[in-house]
Amino acid sequence: MFGLTMREVSGQTAGPTFIERLTASPQPHFSPVASPPDPAGYVEIALAGGFPEPLVGSAVKERTLWLESHLDQLLTRDAASASGHDPARMRRYFEGLALSSAGLAAHNTLFEAAGINRKTADAYQRPLVNLMVLELVPAWLNNRLVARPVKSPKRYVIDPSLIGAALRLDGAAVLRDADLLGRLLDTLVVAQLRPELALGPTRPRLHHAREMNGRRELDLLVELSATQIVAFEVKATASPGPGDARHLAWMRDRLGARFVAGAVLHTGPRQCTLGPRLVALPIASIWAEG
Fold first, then answer.
1. Pairing between strand 272-275 and 154-157?
2. What is the CA radius of gyration of the chain?
3. Deepest in the core among 68, 78, 135, 138, taking most CB within 10 A?
4. Which whole-number Å values give the CA distances from 196 to 8, 20, 30, 187, 203, in the listed order?
5. Residue 156 maps to a domain
């Protein structure tokens, strides 16, 4: 099972999902988010995670201890026993995964940092996926639209709180590291969308898209059906502009009517239109009412 989403935590589970609102015809409508978080607020939400036990009535110190204990259980007992390998190396491997969550780090970079070989890394990765600690989001392979697409999956730590637990991070440390901030926000967004997609009537599929030369990249691409695509960019900016949606616009123009909607999800308070079928929305729009 997935962790709790912010919609569940806030008790706002009635009504259409975020994806359903975004794809509403002829134009998506979102009410302004009341008191949206600032970047520090989003980091706090991400580091709190979705596990019920530490979320309910726990102080930050108690929550941190619970998460570290839970991660220790996962890595030194559950996953390590399933793979039959050294728990210490398993932990180092997971720390590499946490540091590169929502990214395309080469697998050899991860296993070399952990002091293991490819065969062992593969053996470590399988139980982490099976235990729903790690998700591999596949590349969207359409050679007619994406020139020389990167075929590697993006690796996501399922719950962003485990990134903080693995790397012993607090909010201030995340905010000082722009790369890590972007990865944590991307991981948070996927953690909020994943349960919605799993319950969708058409079983939407989550992908990423990137050209080999790095010229164009889409953080998330959701295949609602064979003829409907929704795409997202996650930006650690409070003032998104048309430039932040340039890859979404490119994909929209290439896909035509198949491209239903694209959104730049950001850390600011405002929403605005960035072009036909393109909007900028606060990340909190995923769980806010309206």
1. unpaired
2. 19
3. 135
4. 11, 10, 17, 15, 9
5. yes
What is the pTM for the complete model shown? 0.93
Structure tokens at 255: 């896909």
**In the chain, % of residues over pLDDT 70:** 93
Does residue 148 fall inside a structural domain? yes
List the beta bridge partners of residue 136: 155
118 band by pLDDT with thresholds 50, 70 and 90:
confident
Tokens of 290: 């309206």
- Per the structure, the count of domains in the chain is 1
**Whole-number pLDDT of residue 13:** 78
Within-domain flag for 213: yes
The pLDDT tens digits for 228-251 are 999 999 999 999 999 999 999 999
Q: What would the DSSP string read from start to end of the chain?
A: -PPPPHHHHTT---S--HHHHHT-SSS---PPPSS---HHHHHHHHHH-S-HHHHSS--HHHHHHHHHHHHHHIIIIIHHHHHTS-HHHHHHHHHHHHHTTTB---HHHHHHHTT--HHHHHHHHHHHHHTTSEEEE-B---TTTSSSB--SPEEEESSTHHHHHHHT--HHHHHT-HHHHHHHHHHHHHHHHHHHHHH-TT--EEEEEEBTTSS-EEEEEEEEETTEEEEEEE---SS--GGGGHHHHHHHHHHGGGEEEEEEEESSS--EEEETTEEEEEGGGGTS--
Q: Is position 1 within any domain?
A: no
pLDDT band at residue 146 using 50, 70 and 90 as cut-offs: low
- Tally Cβ neighbours within 10 Å of residue 211: 14
